[in-house]
Amino acid sequence: MYSKRIFFFLVLLISTTIFSQEKELSPLSKISLLTVGIADELHSKFGHTAIRIQDAADGMDIVFGYGGFDFDDPLFYSKFTTGKLDYSMTGHRYNNFLESYKIENRWVREQQLNLTLAQRNKLFAFLKNNYKEENRYYKYDFLFDNCATKIPEVFKKVFGNDLEFKYDHLKETSTFRQLIHETLQTNSWATFGIDLALGSVIDREATPWEHQFLPLYVKDQFENVQVKGEKLVTKEELVLDNNPNEKNGNFLLSPLFWLLLFSVVVLVVTYLDLKNNKRSRWADFMLFFLTGVAGLIICFLWFATNHSATKINFNMLWAFPLNLFVAFVLLKKKTTALWISKYLWVLIGLNVLTIILWVLKIQIFSPLIILILIALEVRYLFLIQNINKSQITLNS
User: Fold this and answer.
1) What is the 3-state secondary structure (H, E, C) of 127-145?
2) Nearest Cα to Cα of residue 231 among 150, 153, 168, 148
3) What is the pTM of this model?
4) CB burial class (10 A; 0-12, 13-18, 19+) of residue 340?
5) What is the pLDDT of residues 271-309, one digit of tens each?
6) Burial (CB count within 10 angstroms: exposed 0-12, middle 13-18, buried 19+), residue 63
């Protein structure tokens, strides 16, 4: 509660500074673009972008951004999960802005912008209006409406045809998934979780403009923007450096280790079951329960949320939601129903289809699911044999 009061006090202070009079910027004013580097936490993996406005005439030094949200909202988690959380434009004093990223050990780069006084005042007027309570909120979208995409959109709205976006710096374009992977470690739970949760919609090639959903690409793009035939960025400098941390990942905590262990356990249990002519019901229950729960989560993200990036997710082919129901069927001591055998053949077919979609690049899956697919295929084939053998025994 105390931190919340401080936050609203600062908002009020900044609002008073900006709106105390219908002031315009003086000839001493400057406007620049700030780009913040990445951090280890998932929400900081992609950086941040903001606009700095300075005016030495009255000591104003304000940073506007579009990454704010109300963490104290009682419905925060449900809104965030379903993609219905309101994000907002924020205003911070520059010193406070810089200090917060110093604490997080993140670098900040500043690009001075080549704007006339009239252009600076036009942008300032737009930002002041956008900062008003009735205008500052928007529905966040990871790919198309976030703190980074808002910045070039603002400049495009304010300056229109005076700005020319050139894309010569992009030697080749990438898919959204490839762009996301650029700031992630391959063998990390964040990367595995993102590849599991985000669907085939992010495997299309992003346009040069769409690359700007990442702050680093906004920074690079602004280096290649012209305003009335002149370069928009006149100078770039590092205003806050970070201290690189040695990243010694613990392999025992990585998804590769745990999925490899999972696959080995399934294969060993299946071999022992085959050798001893039995079926480990606990193994089948856990296998089908986990894939069923994963499938339900994927299904929920696809059909029951507003997240555009989680649509058309073919991970649901191998993480099949109905497996959750079948998990309890397989807890029975003897499972002889023929429909189970047919169901297992369907699952095998869906796993094969997953590989086909992967090869055709309709959706790029995490390479770690190969371990899961191997374990599933082996166990499914064993269960088919076990069920058919039980059926023959009953009929003899």
Assistant:
1) HHHHHCCCCCEEECECCCE
2) 168
3) 0.88
4) middle
5) 999 999 999 999 999 999 999 999 999 999 999 999 999
6) buried
Burial 291-311 (b: 16+ CB within 10 A, else e): bbebbbbbeebbeebebbbbe
Is residue 40 exposed (0-12), middle (13-18) or buried (19+ Cβ within 10 Å)?
middle
Q: Which of 351, 353, 354 is nearest to 381 (CA)?
A: 351
Residue with tokens 């595995």: 192
Q: Which of 204, 217, 67, 214 is nearest to 140 (CA)?
A: 67
- DSSP track, 314-375: GGGGTS-TTHHHHHHHTTSS----HHHHHHHHHHHHHHHHHHHHHHTTSSPPPTTHHHHHHH
Torsion angle in degrees (nearest 10) through CA of 375, 380, 385, 388: 160
Q: Is the dihedral of CA 152, 94, 45, 170 positive or negative?
A: positive
Which residues lie across from 31 on neighbouring strands?
53
